[in-house]
Specification:
7-stranded parallel sheet; single chain; 10 helices; 7 strands; globular; 246 residues; Rossmann fold; alpha/beta
Length: 246
């Protein structure tokens, strides 16, 4: 009897809030086969029965295994939201166990953080703490950093990547969370300069308004928003399909 190999785990973080992490997570989920699992360790700003980020990922990318560990009603940093609501703080051990359980049964697990890389998910734990406990050194596991395209992107991206590396984690790639039809000079320069200042390649560029596409169109176009070789390394099935295509 053989034991199934543990799946790859990618933590998806951002340089700040509202840079496009959820849409980037959905686009990644729609672009790989077999279907990945998605984990949202902590969700804020939604009530008990309201749809959160995972609902948006599933709407755009389709049916998938999706796990949310903790949620709090106010749209604040998770530790602040928990205290204000009088609710227990998120327990990192519960989150790590959820990620490990998903990795035991899926080829790829996407773990979407909250806000920026240093946002407290619990008392002190950040997405970096979860990643340090869940990601395996020397494997394809890593941290995907979603960045905004405009002024400030270089500074925010370099700070975030440095924080990732300081924890001994592998930056797996940069994804520009939204790219307008008519980018300004700063955006065009940033697209070139981001890999230079961070030492991390831009592996994806999502068009502005991607979330407004019909889900079927989103799923059809999503693979074209990522570097093909990088995506193939995450998706053995898609890689095989590309090899077999005449």
């Amino acid at each position: 009897m053989t034991t199934r190999e543990r799946g790859t785990v990618l933590a998806v973080t951002g340089t700040s809030t509202d840079v496009g992490k959820t849409v980037a997570t959905a686009a990644l989920a729609a672009s790989v086969r077999p279907e990945p699992a998605v984990c949202k360790p902590v969700q804020t700003g939604v009530g008990p029965d309201e749809p959160g980020d995972l609902a948006e990922v599933r709407r755009l990318a389709g049916v998938m295994t999706a796990v949310e560990s903790f949620r709090y009603p106010e749209p604040l940093a998770p530790d602040t939201a928990a205290r204000r609501a009088g609710m227990p703080l998120a327990d990192p051990a519960v989150i790590v166990r959820a990620v490990d359980d998903l990795a035991a049964t899926h080829d790829l697990v996407l773990v979407e953080g909250a806000g920026g890389v240093m946002v407290r998910l619990g008392e002190t734990a950040t997405i970096l703490d979860i990643a340090s406990a869940s990601l395996r050194p020397g494997t394809a596991d890593g941290v995907v950093v979603v960045v905004a395209p405009g002024l400030g992107a270089l500074n925010h991206a370099e700070l975030t990547v440095n924080a990732v590396r300081a924890r001994g984690l592998r930056p797996a790639g940069l994804v520009i969370g939204w790219w307008p039809d008519d980018p300004d000079l700063a955006m065009r320069c940033n697209r070139t300069d981001l890999p230079r200042v961070t030492g991390v390649p831009v592996v994806g560029v999502l068009p502005a308004g991607a979330a407004d596409l019909e889900p079927a169109d989103f799923r059809r176009h999503a693979p074209s928003w990522f570097d093909g070789e990088w995506l193939s390394a995450l998706s053995p099935t898609r890689s095989e399909q590309l090899v077999r295509t005449p």
